[in-house]
C-alpha cells in the first residue's frame, strides 16, 4: 500500500490515473501496490481494469536484445591462440545471435583493401616508383617557386617604384642593409609568440609602412592577410628592434667640432666651431584621462595636447642627437638641461638655437650660444640684421630635418595605446631619416 504523494504535480498525475473524481484523497488514503508496474512506486499507478487489455504482457524486444547482447559479450571468452577475427556463436534463449569479435580496431578513415593497388610484378614496381618520383619532383619544384615568390615589398615596389613613399628609405638596397643589421641581433617578440605567417622581409616592411604611412591595423591586417593582434605583435617587436639597433649607435655621442669641419657647408662659414644646431618639435597625441596629465601636456604654442622633443643636427644636416619626448608644456630650457647634450660640450664649441633657448647659464665655460638677437630697441642695427640673417641661414637646416621627421605620418597623431611607446617611435623615425639622401647638397 502506498500513500498519495505530497507534491502537487505528482498528486495531480496520480488523481488523473486512478479516475476517482467522486472522492478527494486524504492523508489516510492508500493505493494498493498491485496498480504499480513491478510494485514500484516510481512511475505511479498505471494498472487498472480499464487499461489492462491494452497493456503488453511481454518485455520490449529492443531492451531484451540489448540485454542479451551485453550478457552474451560478458560470457564470451576467446581461446588463447584463436585467430584475430572470427565469428563466435553463443546460444541464448530462443534464437541465436552471432557476434563478431575483432581484436584489431579499424579506423573509420582506413582505405578499403579493394581500393589499394598492389603491384604484382617488377614492371608494376618500376611504374609505381616512377610515379612517386614524379610527384616528389613536382612538390620540390612547387617548394622552390614558393621560396622565389616576391614579398609584399617587391610586389608594391614593382607597381609603384616609390620606396621612400612607403618605407622612408631611398631604395630597396638600403632596405636589405637595414634588414641585415636587424637580423644580426637577437630579439624576442613583444607578445611572447613568434609570427610565422609572414617572412622577415614583410614584417619589417609592415613596420616601416606603419611608421611612414600610419595605416590602421585593420588596413595592414587585410593587406597582409593577418589579424590585428598579429599586426600589433609585429609592429611593437620590430619597433624595439629598430630602436635597439639604430638609436644608441646614431645618437649616442655628438660628433666633435673638428669632425664637423670635414663636411662644413658654406652657410656655416661664420660658425666654423659649431658643434650642434638644436630645435624642439611637438607631436600631437591623445588627451589623457587625468586632469593633471592633461594640464602638463597642453602646449601653449600649439594650443592642444602634445609631446615635445629636442632634435640636434650637425652643420651638414645629419641628425646627431634626439631626446625623449616630454609633456607639451615643458620649456625648451628644461628639455635641454635634461636631454644629455650639456655633458658632451667642450670649451670652444658653438651652439646654434632659436630665441626660446635661454640656456646661457647652463652652458659650460667656453661654450658659445648663437641665437637671433632680441629686439630690445626700436630698430636693429645693420650688424644685428646681418647676424640675424647669418644665423637664420644656418638654422634653416634643423627645420628641414624636422620636416623630414614629420613625413613619418605616425607622428601626426599618437593614439592612446601607443603613448607609452611614443619616445621609441619618435627616435626611430629620426634614425630612419639618417638613411635618406644628404640634406645639404654642398657637403
From TrEMBL:
<protein>
    <submittedName>
        <fullName>Protein ALP1-like</fullName>
    </submittedName>
</protein>
<keyword id="KW-0862">Zinc</keyword>
<feature type="domain" description="THAP-type">
    <location>
        <begin position="1"/>
        <end position="51"/>
    </location>
</feature>
<keyword id="KW-0479">Metal-binding</keyword>
<dbReference type="InterPro" id="IPR027805">
    <property type="entry name" value="Transposase_HTH_dom"/>
</dbReference>
<dbReference type="InterPro" id="IPR027806">
    <property type="entry name" value="HARBI1_dom"/>
</dbReference>
<dbReference type="GO" id="GO:0008270">
    <property type="term" value="F:zinc ion binding"/>
</dbReference>
<dbReference type="Pfam" id="PF13613">
    <property type="entry name" value="HTH_Tnp_4"/>
</dbReference>
<dbReference type="GO" id="GO:0003677">
    <property type="term" value="F:DNA binding"/>
</dbReference>
<keyword id="KW-0863">Zinc-finger</keyword>
<dbReference type="Pfam" id="PF05485">
    <property type="entry name" value="THAP"/>
</dbReference>
<keyword id="KW-0238">DNA-binding</keyword>
<dbReference type="InterPro" id="IPR006612">
    <property type="entry name" value="THAP_Znf"/>
</dbReference>
<dbReference type="Pfam" id="PF13359">
    <property type="entry name" value="DDE_Tnp_4"/>
</dbReference>
Amino acid at each position: 500500500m502506498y500513500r498519495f504523494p505530497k507534491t502537487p504535480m505528482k498528486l495531480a498525475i496520480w488523481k488523473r490515473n486512478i479516475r476517482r473524481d467522486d472522492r478527494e484523497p486524504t492523508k489516510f488514503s492508500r493505493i494498493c501496490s498491485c496498480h504499480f508496474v513491478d510494485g514500484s512506486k516510481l512511475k505511479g499507478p498505471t494498472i487498472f481494469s480499464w487499461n489492462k487489455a491494452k497493456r503488453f504482457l511481454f518485455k520490449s524486444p529492443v531492451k531484451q536484445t540489448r540485454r542479451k547482447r551485453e550478457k552474451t559479450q560478458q560470457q564470451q571468452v576467446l581461446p588463447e591462440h584463436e585467430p584475430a577475427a572470427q565469428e563466435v556463436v553463443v546460444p541464448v534463449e530462443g534464437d541465436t545471435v552471432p557476434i563478431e569479435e575483432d581484436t584489431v580496431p579499424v579506423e573509420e578513415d582506413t582505405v578499403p583493401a579493394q581500393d589499394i593497388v598492389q603491384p604484382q610484378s617488377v614492371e608494376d614496381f618500376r611504374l609505381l616508383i616512377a610515379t612517386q618520383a614524379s610527384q616528389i619532383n613536382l612538390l620540390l619544384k612547387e617548394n622552390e617557386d614558393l621560396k622565389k615568390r616576391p614579398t609584399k615589398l617587391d610586389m608594391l615596389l614593382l607597381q609603384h617604384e616609390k620606396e621612400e613613399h612607403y618605407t622612408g628609405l631611398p631604395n630597396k638596397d638600403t632596405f636589405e642593409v637595414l634588414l641585415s643589421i636587424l637580423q644580426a641581433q637577437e630579439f624576442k617578440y613583444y607578445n611572447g609568440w613568434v609570427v610565422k605567417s609572414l617572412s622577415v622581409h614583410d614584417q619589417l616592411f609592415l613596420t616601416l609602412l606603419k611608421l611612414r604611412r600610419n595605416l590602421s591595423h585593420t588596413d595592414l591586417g587585410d593587406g597582409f592577410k593577418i589579424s590585428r593582434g598579429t599586426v600589433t605583435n609585429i609592429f611593437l617587436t620590430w619597433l624595439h628592434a629598430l630602436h635597439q639597433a639604430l638609436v644608441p649607435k646614431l645618437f649616442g655621442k655628438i660628433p666633435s667640432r673638428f669632425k664637423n669641419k670635414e663636411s662644413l657647408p658654406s652657410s656655416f662659414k661664420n660658425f666654423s666651431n659649431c658643434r650642434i644646431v638644436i630645435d624642439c618639435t611637438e607631436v600631437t597625441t591623445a588627451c589623457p584621462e587625468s586632469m593633471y596629465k592633461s594640464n602638463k601636456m597642453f602646449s601653449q604654442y600649439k594650443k592642444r595636447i602634445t609631446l615635445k622633443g629636442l632634435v640636434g643636427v650637425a652643420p651638414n644636416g645629419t641628425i646627431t642627437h634626439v631626446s625623449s619626448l616630454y609633456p607639451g608644456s615643458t620649456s625648451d630650457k628644461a628639455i635641454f638641461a635634461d636631454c644629455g647634450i650639456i655633458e658632451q660640450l667642450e670649451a670652444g664649441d658653438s651652439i646654434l638655437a632659436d630665441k626660446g633657448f635661454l640656456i646661457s647659464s647652463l652652458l659650460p665655460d667656453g661654450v658659445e650660444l648663437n641665437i637671433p638677437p632680441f629686439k630690445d630697441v626700436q630698430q636693429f642695427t645693420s650688424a644685428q640684421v646681418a647676424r640675424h640673417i647669418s644665423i637664420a641661414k644656418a638654422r634653416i637646416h634643423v627645420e628641414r630635418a624636422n620636416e623630414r621627421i614629420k613625413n613619418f605620418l605616425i607622428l601626426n597623431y599618437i593614439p592612446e595605446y601607443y603613448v607609452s611607446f611614443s619616445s621609441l617611435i619618435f627616435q626611430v623615425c629620426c634614425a630612419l631619416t639618417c638613411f635618406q639622401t644628404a640634406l645639404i647638397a654642398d657637403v
